[in-house]
Write a structure and sequence with these properties.
CATH architecture of one domain in chain A: 2-Layer Sandwich
Strand order of the largest sheet of chain A: 3-5-1-12-9-10-11
CATH superfamily of the largest domain in chain B: Beta-grasp domain
Distance between the termini of chain B: 53 Å
Largest sheet of chain B: 5 strands, mixed
CATH superfamily of one domain in chain A: Aldehyde oxidase/xanthine dehydrogenase, molybdopterin binding domain
Strand order of the largest sheet of chain B: 2-1-5-3-4
Shape of chain B: globular
Number of domains of chain B: 2
Structural class of chain A: alpha+beta
Strand content of chain A: 15-25%
Number of helices of chain B: 5
Number of helices of chain A: 20
CATH class of the largest domain in chain B: Alpha Beta
Radius of gyration of chain B: 16 Å
Oligomer: heterodimer
Chain lengths: ~750, ~160
Amino acid sequence: MALDEYKPQSGGAELDGERKSFDYVGTRPERPDGLDKVTGRAKFGADAHAPGMLFGAVVRSPHAHARILRIDTSKAEALDGVKAIVTRADFATGLTGEFANVLENVMAGEKALYDGHAVAAVAATSALAARDAVKLIEVEYEVLPHVTDVDAAMAPDAPVINDSYADASVPEGFNANVVRYHESGHGDVEAGFAEADMVFEDTFKTEATHQGYIEPHACLGSLGNDGKGELWCCTQGHWYAQKYCAALLGLETSQLRVTASEIGGGFGGKTTVFIEPVALALSRKANRPVKLVMSRSEVLRATGPTSSASMDIKIGFKTDGTITAAEGTFRLQGGAFPGAPMEFSAMCAFACYDLKNVRQVGYDVVANRPKQAAYRAPGAPMAAFAVESVIDMACNKMGLDPIEVRLKNAARDGSKASYGPRFDQIGMVATLEAAKAHPHYAAPLEPGQGRGVASGFWFNHGGETSVSLALSEDGTAQVSVGTPDIGGSRASMALMAAEVLGIPYENIRVTIADTATLGYNDVSHGSRVTYASGLATIKAARAAVEKLCQRAAAKWGIPEDAVKWENGCAVPSGPNAGDFDPMPLADITATMGQTGGPISGHFEATPEGAGVSFGTHIVDAEVDPETGATKIVRYTVVQDAGKAVHPTYVEGQYQGGAAQGIGWALNEEYIYGEDGRLQNTVFLDYRIPVASDLPMIDAVIVEVPNPGHPFGVRGVGETGIVPPLAAIANAVSNAAGVRLKSLPMSPPKILEALEAGGDA
Amino acid sequence: MTRKTHVTATVNGDTVEYLCDPRETLLDVLRDRLNLTGAKEGCGTGDCGACSVTLDGRLVCSCLVLGVEAEGKQIETVEGLSDGDILHPLQQKFIEHAALQCGVCTPGVLVAAKSLLEKNPDPTETEVRYWLAGNLCRCTGYDKIIRAVMDTAADLREAS
């Protein structure tokens, strides 16, 4: 979720309080696209071909910070098979705001701002010819001083990335690399700390990690000189791609039709554009379709990792564990452009707790690294790492149970959130109670093992949504949604439509519509799909049901409001109850052409009732003091889903979030050399968890209905990555007997901490 | 232009012929010349396993094999897993267990898992985890993948 799209969710009164049970929602049917995905038939980004297609490749800066003095394309142009070369001159001019930032990131202008920044691109008749041509493009650079660390970038004498970035929020006296500032909270923290029996204070750091989707970015673009284009790409949001590509190429938005391919993972990293505008620019120049696919090292060097962070946390406690005040400072480095989600860090940091006095401050810092992109609950995991570590340190010191302390301070229905609004009906306490009752929490530990507990919060999101549902003559239904299906959302849409229509799940086909087929849809992000596209699907189905009832009423010659919908049939009700046999959906649709025409339902809105989400994780870790290696021996996720539409896929989200958190906590990091170049640009060196690294991950679904959704659904995708960094750090610290304050907790760092000593 | 090489191989039981540049990988050939796009390129360096196929029965990353090396060889890809419209038990179990979310690693995982069960019909959880350690999945945390493979193995043992 991009910063400018965040809206505090207002709760709302959508929940169908009459409903006592579900026929379809909550069941676990096979996903509609399962067959395609196990047979190799599903078409992902790189699987498209077009007649006359060319292959693109991108020239990237080997320098972290350099002025581009000259680009000589003459040798490349002379190479057999080369059809087009583009540089910044081939894109729109005069853009402002985020359009300008995205263009600058897609293709460098005057300066290369990070190792891997695109400076030119070529299209040729084969991928090999394109790759050869890249090597023949000569770029002359004037290398400039660079900075990649967040704290170093804030230093007074640090090289400045761009002296026009900083906005009016930044207090005086900071280096120009501090580009935005945030402050929030309530109460009087100084008075709160004065009330405390003990105050704990520490500093924490996390490195940038990559979303690590297995499918590299890939697209196929076709753009003519008439300004009309087609784009196929793997994206979390094809309307976003349409809007940004059109702006960057100077097109009318509606003239570019974008189709989302199947998407091989995104986790936030495919919520923006990188190669898509480049493929279109090459296509316009060559007058042929152009396919552009990133290599893994391009993905790691040039697409959005998350922010790195440096954080100070101070929390005051009474001896019984009551928190009297909490304060946090969050410095996030988001690459060479403004936008590090430091507000989200600040706002989520203490949101699990009902605090009288709380204050949080954020700094958005730029450095010579790739432009950060959203990564699953952007900003929240690192903040939770710092805050939940301090709570664990306090529990250890005061001899208190970590779940009891959290229960004592937990945010409840009606609590004033640390970031401002009052919570509606929430599940923080429910997750803690379920964690406390779980056998994992009482299980004995082996020698060398430690247990960690942590909670986490994420806002969840609504966003612009359009859904269209059309009934067919044979009584089946097709649902068109605009949110790419990243992890089984077709199944949840079909379940929700089946629930309303009362026809079998199997009779509903859900399609991800292209940009020409449906109104605008916000990106698949912010855990919004099952909530917002689900709500829209339910309302579209209800609109169709209303028409079905009207047709039945007309046939029976009774008033429209005397017909209700039950179990897939129109049924006379009220004074007419029992006068006619129930009329099944298929009987009505069979003749709909003669009774008033096709029956469809659609819904367009920006729902704002995405219920917030909480989770609590329990982790057992074993640390080898000889090597510093850590093994996760047991892992339990407890999270509130509101209502789990397809529980198996909800479990999958919890397990996936935990696994990514394990990677972030233990292994994954962006390693920059002295020269500012990324040193680990392949999966061998940027090591995400593999099957043999992990245990089974127990997923416990808690259901506290969200008042903002007809069936009580809350988004579940992101919260699962918020507690793991902290829960694992707490487990590792308790196993090692020393406190780990910097991620990843790689073997050298653990050995260093053991050497330094101290308390856990 | 580099001179291309003529290659004859068998893919999923069918004889195929192609011309390929000596620099092209078997994965490039499968995807771009034979239109078998089931195998995916996730890394191009043999680290992710999304391009897993078997070459004369041996599990390989097709991004680490050159197209010209396939001369006279038997190649099996995800497209050859099912028997006509009857899914391989692994394919069916992956759907039942929701052992995939985005599905991009799935073709490689399935090919690798089939290769495991042919060698070891009764693997322990640890053996499955180590065998599949070369197949990266970023979505699932592997839990449901491991369960699907173990469940398939149990069913196949019962059936045999």
